[in-house]
Amino acid sequence: MIRLEDLSVAFDGAEVVKNINLELRDGEILGLVGESGSGKSVTALTLMGLVSDAAQVTSGRILFDDVTLLEAGRPRDRSLYRGYQGNKMSMIFQEPMTSLNPTQRVGKQVDEVLRLHTGLSPEERRKRVLEMFRAVGLREEEKVYASYPHQLSGGMRQRVMIAMAVILHPRLLVADEPTTALDVTIQSQIIGLLREINEKQKNTMLFITHDLNLARRICRRIAVMKDGRVVEQGDTEQIFGHPAREYTRKLIEAVPSRIKTNKAARMADTAGEPAVQVRDLSVFYQDGGNSLFSRNRRRCVVEGAEFDIYPGESVGLVGESGCGKTSLARAVLGMNRDITGQVVHRTMGPQMIFQDPYSSLNPAKTVGWLLQEPLRARGLLDREKAMTGEEMEEAAYEMLRRVGMDDLYFHRRPSQLSGGQRQRVSIAQALITHPGFIVADEPVSALDVTIQAQIMELMQELQQEMKLAYLFISHDINVVYRMCDRIMVMRKGRIIESGDRSEIFEDPKEEYTRQLLRDS
């Protein structure tokens, strides 16, 4: 149905996609895997007609049912693409916060797809939207319908994007990291939903992911990209069982696993005082209701949390999207003051690695400026720690290298980086002041498996050097197993189970914990 023939795409004369040849057959799911910056997303955006005007198709063409949508030497026919976009081809984007309109309620945004492409009445459209919200695992669909994007968790925003993309059952669905922000239970639901739609509607799917285990579960064929080229493609089990290229073997070996983890025994000094101590912590938000009476009502999102984290210790926090993990983390760091209970810090300058790097990095500044900003702020607060401009610049270059990025990225802006590269900058920004306590909120969720392994190794090295304490939030059970000494399981705002890593994984007490382990 879809053919990419000898496709090359360049920005400012530099080719980032080079001589791609891919076929997507009717009804199949093709996985596109590779490291961040390998050209996966540019390939997808070019196919969808959504790549920026700065991109040039230097060779090849794209065909949909033998209709040429795009060809080298011809300008993009926007009117032709409009006849396909939304109705015949749709896309689930990697970062929902930048794809959803922050000034409109999400129900209205999904409704707009139906309004533009169907003749349904407003009541029928609303009913269809609510049904789709339920299908993608969004509870309290009426409340979600009336919410703005910032009022939803990262995973909930991603599910809204999925609902928007599949609501018209398009023949081609391009899924660019569609489950990056989702916990394992919802991830399984979404994969099941996408597979069900694929089987019932016989649609074709291009599934882009850095999670090779996920690609293996859903894809019939896999294409591996490196440096803008497809270096290997074939049936899924052939790729995993007998990879032909050394690069593919490295990708498979880098996948985090409970079997081959090499995490050392706990380094924490539990005999001393904890780096952070939390006692009977409850966290509240003002209710987002529309009525005059509900507008000022407090809503409890975390109830009675208690834990200690010691220097050199990593404590994992797992649970479904929307269960209160990020709300708890923000309260521990003092970013939400509407709390009861007690939080005691015994380290200076705790930092947070955010889940969505694009919304947490200033888009107007360069990477170098962003990395030096924490150093400038620390110098203003503590004159003894102030650094010269040359010292800050050298520290920024050094941290950039330590998170696996070349010096040439120093002068680029966030919009010029891939999703994984932006996440590495966010991690570097948090680590550059060498804080004693770090909250890592999905710090490797946007990274491909090879860089993910490097970042986890880097965080563990820094922890050993500086006796850092980590509160590590993740929906990836295998990542938590590799990184954490102790694990807390959260559900509906309460920590329902906690214990050593081996205790939680080998003898979970709660059925909910057992379900998380089964779905991973």
Descriptive overview:
By secondary structure, the protein is an alpha/beta fold. It contains 20 helices and 19 strands. The chain has helices at 40-48, 78-82, 96-99, 106-117, 122-135, 141-145, 154-166, 184-201, 212-218, 236-241, 246-253, 325-332, 357-360, 367-381, 389-402, 419-431, 449-466, 477-483, 501-506, 511-519, and strands at residues 2-11, 14-24, 29-34, 55-64, 67-71, 89-92, 172-176, 204-208, 221-226, 229-235, 276-286, 298-309, 314-318, 339-345, 351-353, 437-441, 469-473, 486-491, 494-500. The strands form 4 sheets. A 6-stranded mixed sheet has the order 6-7-8-3-9-10, sandwiched between helices. The chain has a 6-stranded mixed sheet with strand order 15-16-17-13-18-19, sandwiched between helices. Strand 9 and strand 10 form a beta hairpin. Helix 4 crosses helix 5 (122-135), helix 14 (367-381) crosses helix 15 and helix 15 (389-402) packs across helix 16. The chain is globular, with a radius of gyration of 23 Å.
